[in-house]
Each structure stands twice: as C-alpha cells, then as structure tokens.
Amino acid sequence: MSVISLNILALLCIIIPLAEMTTHRPESSTELKLAILNASPGDTISLLPEDYHGDFAIFRSGSKNHPIKIIGTKDKYKSTQIIAKRRGFDVKGDYWVIENMSIKSSDVGVELSGRGNWLKDLFINGAIRGIIMEGEDNRAVGITYPNSGPSPVPPTTTTEYFPSFPTTTTRDCSGWRKIYHYCWG
Question: Sign of dihedral through CA atoms 172, 175, 37, 89?
C-alpha cells in the first residue's frame, strides 16, 4: 500500500466515527430516556431549559476519547431541571459527562458506579445524599447542594463523609478513587 493510501485510510478512520456522532434534543422525559438508551460514544444529549421528570438509569458506555454528554441549558428565565423520585441519574455506564443543570431528588442526586464519568456545574437540591461515587476515575466539580440533608450512614473505613452544611456550598470531589464515596456540600 502506498503512503497516500495509508493517509487516506487513516483520515477515513477519523472522519467516519465523527460522522456517526449525534446530538439528541429531547423535548420530554420519555424522549430523554430514549436518548439515553440509544446514545453512542461521542453523542451529546442537549436538554432544553425545562423540567424532566423521572429517575434516569444509564447502562450504556461512552469511550475515553468519546464520552457521551448530557448537557443542560440555562437561559435568562429558566434552566434544565431533573425532578426525580429516587435518583436523578444512576450511572452504571462508563465515560459520561453530566453538566449544567439542577437535580431535585428525595434520595440521591447522582449515583456513579461506572468509571471515567464527570459531573460538572450541578445544583443538587433536597437529596439525602448529593452524590454517591463508586468505581474509578469519577469526578465531580462545581457541585452546589443548598438543601441536601445529612447522611443516615455513619462514616466507615470505606466511606468518606462530608456532612451537609446549612448554607449553599460548592465542593470539588475530583480525584476520588476509593470503592464507595459520598460527596456533600
């Protein structure tokens, strides 16, 4: 094979996967669940500045170089809000990025049990536990917890415990690598 043929083949290997990446724009909770179910590595799920009701389980995986993203919207009057009964997002897959939204839940805002996942700029309200992290290389930055209550689970040797504070707090939970983590404001 000539050098030109190898260069064309290499270029096609880059272009073809990029052409398959999709931006999903769900307009309802049902459409959001379908977008999560059908997402592929490199896809983006772009949320509207509205309320999405439900507990959203994530089993699919992105890849290290092509994570799957769920990105909320904030405009002048409203932002994306996830309103959950139990868990806003239960991420069992790997390489997801969830950012720029509010999550209201009675139990857990987000649970990460996959690896290589990122949480960015989330506002978690009313959850008993803001974030539960299991797995490796999961990160949370710019997380705000204004009304998340204290944990019913006392600290143990396998749990890092951050009690809730009465005022809005932002915590950077980057770099956690232990088996089981709780992160509160």
Answer: negative
Sign of the Cα pseudo-torsion (121, 164, 134, 50, in order): negative
Please, which residues have CB within 8 angstroms of residue 40's CB and are 6 or more apart in sequence? 20, 21, 22, 60, 68
Tokens, residue 128: 């008993």
Give the DSSP H/E element, type plus range, for residue 29. helix 29-38
Nearest to 143 by CA among 165, 163, 121: 121
- CA–CA gap between residue 36 and residue 22 (Å, rounded): 12
Domain boundaries, the chain: 23-183
pLDDT digits (tens, 9 = 90+) for 61-92: 999 999 999 999 987 788 999 999 999 999 99
* Gyration radius (Cα) of the chain, Å: 18
For the segment 116-137, the average pLDDT, to the nearest whole number, is 85
Measured in whole angstroms, the distance separating CA 11 from the mean position of its chain's CA atoms is 31
Q: In whole angstroms, give the CA distance from residue 40 to residue 76.
A: 31
From the list 98, 89, 101, 133, the residue with the least C-alpha distance to 115 is 133
Contact assessment for residue 132 and residue 111, using Cβ atoms and an 8 Å cutoff? yes
